[in-house]
Design brief:
Blueprint: H1 15-20, H2 47-58, E1 62-67, H3 72-75, E2 80-82, H4 84-92, E3 99-103, H5 106-115, E4 121-123, H6 139-151, E5 158-163, H7 168-176, E6 180-182, H8 187-197, E7 200-204, H9 207-217, E8 225-228, H10 239-244, E9 247-250, H11 262-271, E10 276-279, H12 285-290, E11 293-294, H13 297-306, E12 312-316, H14 319-329, E13 335-338, H15 354-365, E14 372-373, H16 377-391
Parallel strand pairs: 1-2, 1-3, 3-4, 5-6, 5-7, 7-9, 8-9, 10-11, 10-12, 12-13
Antiparallel strand pairs: 4-14
Helix pairs in contact: 2-15, 4-5, 7-16
């Protein structure tokens, strides 16, 4: 296999990623694991009533956002549901809400803080709810990568395009270097724009979305793509490889979508004759190539809404959403199953549970601001610049 084809999912975790996996402790990062005060017991039979009472007491002062991958016990209290960017924009559209409680992960809450007004305060019920993909690209690593590109004589030809699933620091880097942000829905438009600005793209941090968009949607070849590994000298690439590449893909991936393999697709087709395979573009290239339909979370939902009664679907995305969709459309006779036989939730997203939500809402109702996510002004300025470039895409 070529470098661009190799999934290479053994990415070395950053210290924060180790923390989220429960293998390391960082007193500065682990504030959300044990809340100041009493965290309600998961077995408390009054949790639902307590959450409802605190939310009612706060009234219009609070706006609860629920990402599609959240648990049902949490999603029931969301004022709106959606993907990360939709939710951040929804928050910005509610200026009367003093508190934005983001039931998602850290980079999503950062994006909400960037897009909302200075008067609004974004709260993440558990500060240890992160994203393994976002953690695979640190500001220091990306700065070093840019130095490598400079030494290879190609930095002036490169336009960075960063996936929404990245930290505020990475978004700011992108803004400083003339790049844009993309979502899984508009990645092709973002790349088309970037290639109008330069000859090459540095795509951060998800290699699979970058590769799938370039090859599947834009007609590039796998040989046009190289993978930059931040854990190897010079990213594991020669200057010649960098000069020959159109797409420089960061070696990162989603731990949920990256687990689906071609065997999963073949097995489900054999097990369920006539099944439609629908996957997220964060999946590996061979999975996307073998699927019947490929698209963002919102695309997956809309496709199933429009699907005929009695149709069969195997979905390659996070299990909480798949299970929710299966229950929602069961009455219409649509058979919806998880693409892989092995159960896999997004473990960091699942840190936001009902006890943490109750604790956050009750604290706010009592006048105590907890777990605020606040992006510094300089980072916010450049990150917003990159986001605004995305919003201006045709």
């Amino acid at each position: 296999m070529t470098t661009a084809q190799t999934p290479e999912l053994d990415v070395q975790p950053t210290p924060l990623a180790l923390l989220l996996l429960g293998r390391e402790a960082d007193p500065k990062s682990e504030r959300g694991v044990e809340c100041p005060g009493d965290l309600p017991s998961p077995s408390d039979p009054d949790l639902v009533a307590r959450a409802r009472a605190a939310k009612e007491k706060l009234g219009n002062k609070v706006f609860v956002l629920g990402h599609h991958y959240q648990r049902d016990e949490v999603i029931q209290f969301a004022d709106v549901t959606g993907d990360s960017f939709k939710l951040a924009r929804d928050a910005a559209a509610r200026p009367e809400a003093e508190y934005i409680v983001f039931c998602g992960v850290h980079f999503m809450a950062e994006s909400a803080d960037i897009l909302t007004s200075d008067d609004q305060k974004v709260v993440l019920p558990d500060l240890a709810a992160g994203c393994s993909m976002a953690d695979m690209a640190t500001a220091e690593q990306v700065a070093e990568c840019w130095d490598v590109l400079t030494e290879a004589g190609v930095a002036d030809q490169v336009v960075p395009v960063s996936y929404m699933n990245s930290s505020a620091d990475i978004k700011a880097f992108t803004g400083k270097h003339g790049g844009t942000i993309c979502t899984s829905s508009n990645a092709q438009r973002a790349l088309e724009w970037a290639f109008q600005q330069g000859q090459k793209v540095l795509f951060l941090p998800d290699q699979h979305l970058g590769r799938n968009t370039a090859v599947r949607d834009m007609g590039m070849s796998l040989e046009d793509c190289v993978v930059y590994n931040p854990h190897k000298p010079n990213g594991g690439l020669t200057a010649e490889e960098l000069r020959g590449a159109k797409m420089i893909l960061w070696r990162g991936h989603c731990s949920v979508h990256g687990r689906f393999g071609l065997d999963s697709v073949n097995e489900v087709r054999e097990r369920i004759p006539g099944v439609n395979v629908l996957v997220h573009p964060e999946c590996r290239h061979e999975v996307v190539a073998a699927a019947d339909y490929v698209g963002s979370t919102e695309y997956i939902i809309k496709t199933l809404e429009a699907a005929p009664a009695g149709s069969k679907w195997a979905i390659g995305t996070e299990l909480n959403l798949v299970r929710r969709l299966a229950n929602r459309f069961a009455s219409e006779g649509k058979e919806i199953v998880f693409l892989d036989r092995t159960v896999c939730f997004c473990s960091t997203m699942n840190r936001i549970d009902l006890p943490h939500l109750v604790w956050a809402l009750e604290s706010l109702a009592e006048g105590t601001l907890v777990n605020r996510i606040e992006v510094d002004q300089e980072t916010e300025t450049f990150a917003k610049l990159a986001l605004e470039r995305m919003l201006a895409l045709p």
